[in-house]
Amino acid sequence: MFERMREDIQSVFHRDPAARNAFEVVTCYPGLHALWLHRMAHALWVAGWKWLARMVSNLGRWMTGIEIHPGAKIGRRFFIDHGMGIVIGETAEIGNDVTLYQGVTLGGTSWNKGKRHPTLEDGVVVGAGAKVLGPFTVGAGAKIGSNAVVTKEVPAGATAVGIPGRVIAKPDGEQQAKRQAIAEKFGFDAYGVGQDMPDPVSRAIGQLLDHLQAVDARLEGMCGALKSLGSDYCAKDLPQLRDEDFVGVCKEQDEKPAA
Q: How far is CA 159 from the centre of its chain?
């Protein structure tokens, strides 16, 4: 038991930079208190002491503002950040290393008995205010954006945002590498490129980089064709990119942008 508690405390340090020391975490993190009370309530629930389990769960809700049904199954290193307003239903299943932020609901969409709440596999992160509703699975490593309402399965490693929740298409590895290469060539640090949860600006930047890469390839082909015809039109060097034009854009001041 104490080993699990130490593991829980360490998981806070891994995922919350505001945590300063173990005493502060143990005394001031309601998410941790709610988790420990749930373990007690779940043990009572499994043992058949249903009413007592509900009382312990209700005590945890009163103390922390986090409502976890004693029937819910929760894995190791579960982290609740802030936590106020979180609701986790009876048949919810949560894997290892899952993170929930405040206002999250893992709820159902049916009054029928049986499995009616979601399953979150290992490493899932659910943003503040998100609602995950129904008996489906959110795959390992997936992310749910803040205030999203998700009612369908989310593939492993994907990101779901919006109302209703939709999976954001991510560029494959080859496309991502091309974008990074063209960004570096022009001395541009595209803040949104490669992020797991792109916003409209970063998606637009990605499209611009794809366009630049296509234009660059076309120009190279044209220059090669002209050179084969004996023209020296493309032999001239391109204008140099000046360092002062990229102050604040290049990663380091002494990093020279590519010519």
A: 7
Residue type, 126: V
Nearest to 88 by CA among 131, 51, 137, 25: 131
Q: Length of the chain, please? A: 259
Q: Is 249 helix (H, G, I), strand (E, B) or coil?
A: coil
Is the entire prediction scored with pTM above 0.70? Answer: no
CA 116 to mean position of chain CA atoms:
24
Which range, of 5-9, 107-111, 151-155, 193-197, averages the lowest pLDDT? 193-197
The tokens for 43 are 């043990």
Q: Homologous superfamily of 2-167 in CATH?
A: Hexapeptide repeat proteins (2.160.10.10)
Domain boundaries, the chain: 2-167, 173-246
Selection from 109, 112, 70, 104 nearest residue 87 by Cα: 104
Residues 118-122, mean pLDDT to the nearest whole number: 93
Q: For residues 117 and 106, give the distance between their C-alpha atoms in angstroms, rounded to a whole number.
A: 6
Residue of 135, 154, 51 lying closest to 144 (CA atoms)? 154
Question: Phi and psi dihedrals of 212, rounded to 5?
Answer: -60, -40
Q: Where are the beta strands (DSSP E) in the chain?
A: 67-68, 73-74, 79-80, 87-88, 93-94, 99-100, 105-107, 119-120, 125-126, 131-133, 137-138, 143-144, 149-150, 159-161, 166-167
Report which of 142, 82, 137, 130 is spatially closest to residue 104, judged by C-alpha positions: 130
Non-local (6+) Cβ contacts of 181 within 8 A are 213
Task: Give the phi and the psi of residue 74 in degrees, each rounded to 5.
Answer: -125, 135
Judged against a pLDDT cut of 50, whether residue 141 lies above it is answered with yes
Alpha-helix runs per DSSP H in 69-119:
none
Is residue 145 within 8 A of residue 161, CB to CB? The reply is: yes
